[in-house]
Design goal:
The complex is a heterodimer.
Chain A lengths: L4 H11 L5 H23 L8 H16 L1 H10 L5 H50 L1
Chain B lengths: L2 E7 L3 H14 L4 E6 L6 H7 L3 E4 L6 H14 L4 E4 L11 H9 L5 E5 L11 H16 L12 E4 H7 L11 H9 L4 E5 L16 H18 L8
Parallel strand pairs in B: 1-2, 1-4, 2-3, 5-7
Antiparallel strand pairs in B: 4-6, 5-6
Helix pairs in contact in B: 1-2, 3-6, 7-8
Classes of the chains: A mainly alpha, B alpha/beta.
Chain lengths: ~130, ~240
Amino acid sequence: MKLDPRLIELRELLLSAPESTSTRVLFVSLSLLLAATVLLLVKRRTLREEYTPIWLAVAAAITLLSLSRPLLYFVTRSIGAWTPSSALFFFGELFLVAICLNYAVRLSRLALEVKNLAQELAVLRAELERRGAD
Amino acid sequence: MKRLVVIPAFDEAERIGAVIECVRRCLPEFEIVVVDDGSRDATAAVARAAGARVLRHPFNLGYGSALQTGYKFAHRAGAEVVVQMDADGQHDPAEARALAAPVEAGELDLVIGSRFLGVGDYQMEPLRNAGRALFRGILRGFALRVSDPTSGFQALSRRVLELYVGDAFPADYPDVDVLLIAHRHGLRIGERPVHMTASPRASLLHSGLAPVYYVYKMLLSVWAASARPRDRRSA
């Protein structure tokens, strides 16, 4: 597909826009907040350690991308996005879909385990009653 | 030969007593096991008073899970023949013997009591009938002829129990998917005609989007059942 040269120019123009310091500060603080929340939840035993790596990795990725402009622009170009923000949104959404699917798998397994436990309980209780009656 | 009748029940205090009475009269050599699926009424107490052994779920797990609890108990108790029937009086215990006979004789592993083999005049709504035709057609594609795959009135051999106590057994509503699993494991499946009265309680499957989801779920689980390897470990 042959692109209108003006469009290519526009894209380069968008990608050369200076990054605002406030955006950078915002993103870094948000990711630090995320990491701190994760650690705090672990400390309170509300979150199990096994669920933390993925969230800490996300926090680290956001920090890295916000601090390193060339990296963010490289990623933006390589996925064919026009602006760094749409690249970030894309990865954010991808991550959310992946983690939801992961939770659905975990939930299915838990439901199976809960069902098996409840059945086991019913059978064992009947067994106990029978022994009590004998 | 140890024989068991498994009756899953949810909020059936009004009817379960009469059903158990009937089973005791018709099948005196069968032990009666009622699986109370977390009823909110006196189902368990009524069943116990009527002479049944009661297995109680701590909370409601669904029809399929209740059946499976009965299978697990029967399996552990060493049962050779299990008859399953509903607690609402839809099935006539007098006909259970005809279902159990081929299993006891070792001719079949799974005998389904069918509403659609010429006995009685069970009526189904057109939409349900269409769904039934669809799934019957699918089963025929796997060389399995069953006219009434949703029937809750069945007789099972120990070989079926061994398969059904596994995690492949559907927790919500066993249907053509589980028959397909049994068929693919080489179990011999047959049918016998039975009378059935329409269930006194409105089926939960017939409100809103539930039938659509049901057909979708069944197609998906039929596909999954046919795509899994046939070996026993998958069950």
